[in-house]
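step: validate -> pass
step: tokenize input -> pass
step: predict -> running
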Amino acid sequence: MDKIRGSFLEHNRAAWNKYVADGSQWTLPVGDGEISHARAGDVRVFLTPTKHVPKDWFPGLNGLRVLCLASGGGQQAPLFSAAGAEVTLLDNSDRQLATDILVCEKYGLGLRAEQGDMRDLSRFEDGCFDFIFHPVSNLFVDDVEVVWRECARVLRKGGTLVTGFINPVVYIFDAMKMENGRLAVKHKIPYSPFQPSAKEETEIFMASGDALEWGHSLEQQIGGQIKAGFAITGFYEDRNRDADPMILDEFIDVYIATRAIKL
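step: predict -> pass
step: emit ->
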């Protein structure tokens, strides 16, 4: 456990490379239809599982400097590029990045692909992006507030950050029992896979090669954006796709999407 605690980024990189090999829904690239729509100005992307991001959350994309943050898998970056944006993609998984590169090569689209940690954007200059697209992914790092600070630093004043994340209520429950349709309160929030109550399930996730997750509080997720210098200007909730249900979907939408403007 202690060894993984210090190298969880490597563990999660291997997990996502495995998900690519397994054909996870978040690793399947877009095709001709989606690219054609995007080239016509109709960009249909997801921050959360089922709802397309509202069109009025996007500024004009042609010529826009876009950072797709922890957003690999060939699903978003190619569409922004097809719409005329100048796209940079940063992701921890080399196989996810490879999918985006292949899609962009196939359709003759520009893309700057970078492998790295979403918590460390030091390779990018201050204010070098106009728009950041950050789908559900910050559950795979231990510190989300540093993510918001880095987003604020690399985004120009008046720039837009759109992001998806998980309601931490999910992490209150015993994960193994929840997978079997039972709800048993077990953990405190914020949740860490290394807190004592999570030891058993973390060992199971590690043995199966699944990614380790953190359940950040709403104060860290929403309050953290505000503290970093953003104003929240859009909000919606979502749930899992029918093909991948969670027992909590019967009771509450467990995904949250926000639109924020750097002040």
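step: describe -> The mean pLDDT is 96.
step: cleanup -> pass
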